[in-house]
User: Fold this.
Amino acid sequence: MMTYIVFILSVIFVVSFVGFSSKPSPIYGGLVLIVSGGVGCGIIMNFGGSFLGLMVFLIYLGGMLVVFGYTTAMATEQYPEVWVSNTTVMGVFLLGLLMEVMLVLYVLKSEEVGVVFKFSGVGDWAIYDIGDSGVFSEEIMGVAALYSYGAWVVIVTGWSLFVGVLVILEVTRGD
Amino acid sequence: MNPLIFTTILMTVLLGTMIVMMSSHWLMIWIGFEMNLLAIIPILMKKYNPRTMEASTKYFLTQATASMLLMMAIIINLMHSGQWTITKVFNPTASIIMTSALAMKLGLTPFHFWVPEVTQGISLTSGLILLTWQKLAPMSILYQISPSINLNILLTMAVLSILVGGWGGLNQTQLRKIMAYSSIAHMGWMTAVLVYNPTLTMLNMLIYIMMTLTMFMLFIHSSSTTMLSLSHTWNKTPLTTTLILITLLSMGGLPPLSGFMPKWMIIQELTKNSSIILPTLMAIMALLNLYFYMRLTYSTSLTMFPSTNNMKMKWQFETKRITLLPPLIVMSSLLLPLTPMLSILD
Assistant:
């Protein structure tokens, strides 16, 4: 099972995305976001990126999702929608689940999946080596490169986040 | 809103488009599109009524979907070419997805449904920014990937856009919807010649922006958003009726005005490439556009409909200061003799 762990985690990832895309109440959406964040962290860790995975847990789940959960708890309604309470939501969730199951069966049965890009079986997901250099870890080098070569990206994304806050304050101000 | 915040957000819209136009890494281009989208939402929502909020939501949903499709095309391109540089797209599937994504951002058929609704729901100035500045970024990306665009898809979208832009504008009396359908048709003309000679796309974009800018400023100057309201400008500022006449005929593509220049060049370029039926069809469908421009000029400048005396007066707001209106009017009507200068766009 450990050779196929990335495949299993990615299936759980897609299922939890289907879970919140079928639009239950935001509280339950946040719940599956936690699951998908954790599973995504697991996927990254299997590729050797322990730093980035823990970053996901700390900042995304422990920072942003906590704030989201608190604000949603303040704005929630008396009977929030679950996946089984509303026919539409349950229908969409089951449809997404069905499509994912069919895709998984297609991958498991046939040797090769050639929908848009070639994907030769479940073994394609297994990791056999970490990277070229045996001394430095790739993903820490990537983080270092972000702050040296990628300074422009940091500036642009920082400015986008700042303007995002301004925009949200402006939009929700009303008059 | 607070002037400082408004300036910051407007500068971010400009910065977003600049980042799209000058980046060589696909991810930065995507970031530029998102920054542009995020910052223009409060500009669309300047007045806080349900109409503007609905229009902004529609705009945000369609553009976010287009950005997602763009990201998917970028990733497929990465998988097949192994690099992030924007040169040409190395895989036909990625090229088709990217063309569809950029067509959604521009408002080409079959993704044109958001343009009239969003343009109608927002104020005239916001509509101006929407129909001119927001077209620059997707068009620059189309220009850069033009060697690898699937010709059939692009030409189908272009011809259908010209048809829809002409046909859809026929039953409209609201000026913003008329400008929206005119934008759809002009985008169709621009993308039709993209694969053959991208310089003409840039020329058409330039002339289109000048003419649309002029039209919107004339509308803002007379504070009119309907055909009925525009037909009363003879009473307020008689000079603008003549200017509206000239600019509208230029938009319709009549010689000797400058709106004729892009159409002429595009038809010439298409016939040089041995396609005759296509430019004929495009020119015939441009007649539909010309019809509703002429109807606008008829009711505005050429006729005074009989009405009671108190209907003739427009409410006299204080005169708005419109920047650069005279040069814009001159440029959008008299540029035809400068056609040989289009070689500077290469």
In short: The two ends of chain B are 41 Å apart (CA to CA). Chain B has one domain: 3-344. Chain B has a mean pLDDT of 90.
